[in-house]
Amino acid sequence: MSINQSGWRPTSPEANTGNVPASVTGNKALMLEEALIFEIGDSHTTGVDFDTFGSPANAGAQGTKDAARNPGFLLSQENKLGGLLRTAPIGLPGLSEPETVRHYTRLSRQNYGIDLGFFPLGSCTMKHNPRLNEKMARLPGFSDVHPLQPVDTVQGALEVIHQLAHWLVTLTGMTSVAMSPKAGAHGELCGILAIRAALEAKGEGARKIILVPESAHGTNPATAAFAGYSVEDIPATAEGRVDTAALKARLGPDVAGVMITNPNTCGLFERDMREISDAVHAAGGFVYCDGANFNAIVGRVRPGDLGIDAMHINLHKTFSTPHGGGGPGSGPVVFSEALTPYAPLPFVEKQGDQFVLIEEENADEHHAGSFGRMVAFHGQMGMFTRALTYILSHGADGLRQVSEDAVLNANYILRSLDDTLDAPFGPSGPCMHEALFSDSGLATGFSTIDIAKGLIDEGFHPMTMYFPLVVHGAMLVEPTETESKAALDQFIAALRSVAERAKAGDPSLKTAPHFAPRARLDETLAARKPVLVWKDPAPLAQAAE
Ligand SMILES: *Cc1c(COP(=O)(O)O)cnc(C)c1O
Whose CA is nearest to atom 12 of ligand 1? Predict the structure, then answer.
């Protein structure tokens, strides 16, 4: 049978369904199996009534008919396109409108998102995105503006950027903020480029080392290397924090700065942060803080008080703008007084009762040292509107409660499971916004991946796995403040059950998930050799016909 003509073929599902016979369709109840669009598509079908393009020879039967009906048709197309008329079919799958709608709807049902259930990915802050934010972002005055519009026609949008900048500077206790970086990693690059510009301005461009703790997010060393620095690791202490003594010992005239995540990726607050900053400054370097975990301290700690020079804020984490395939992200960077002159353009400033865009280095004395631009325009307007709505609707007391509840929820999970799962830093005290477990103590042959796959069968997106690297077989669980106690209790019961099966060596866990559309994929192969282009398996189809 040709799959191109029928759009359907009998499937032998690879998932283990126990003693229950597999369905002939491959469907599992109303969860429908879906082939690739190229497999269900058919070059003779279309959902739109365009005139047929191309010469009769290659446009198929319909093209021949059109040309016969209207002999001037091809000629007129050729005239318009000046010899660029397509001479071969483009190879797009043809689908009718209902087939197209069903294809994407079926795929969307196989997706998992924060609007479906608990999403405990550590370090990602997958919190609920309030619908009020969406409503505000969709107001035409914000959603329909164009970055090249004259500024007097977008005063409201500029005011949003200006107000958000004000609150980000206030919440962090810093001097200024660059709004344009488009994600956390982009913000890191922005911060490091500002540090580089500041060092060069002081004639200290020869400092070529950035110190990064072992527990850092992978984007930190990648950013430093991308900006031309050499990265040196700073070890962690047994209790999961930066080894302050080792860091101080490495400081010197070749060190440009440090990049430290606080709270760190083990879910712990770096208590020595002020001491570290003072030592780095005394040695002539700058302090970059990865602020992705700001959700744990927002409203309670101001990074500016800890001596930080630059820090990105993931609006899509702390301030609830959607992310995780639902992006785009937004990563404004706050700066200390020392780095402010080097921050990238543009800036929104209020002059009298007008909001203006500062787009040139020489526009005023504050931005003379700017290292340039991170992006063509002004940043992610939709994210700014959502984040400002989030900040204003929570207020100061609400934001403080965000971090308190985020930390409370994480500790509830840590203490509810540390009798079953190994919690490497559990004994040294409470955690911040995320609870760290490890696969130590599971039966031989069982590891973090088996727990993650078992959780899928229980209807939960897995936690962050094998990160941070300082802990072997790490499992990082970040509940955020937006989960109810009932949701946490259900997750705890599920994780406890899966962990007990892994400790008992239950062989069925090694083949989990059993209820998912696909079971264990070769994730390494998929990452190393992704198949991104569909090729017509012509010999196969011919053989079948
Ligand atoms: C998410 C995250 C980043 C990167 O942020 P993106 O917006 O994904 O680029 C960097 N560091 C830490 C600790 C993070 O959790």
Answer: 292
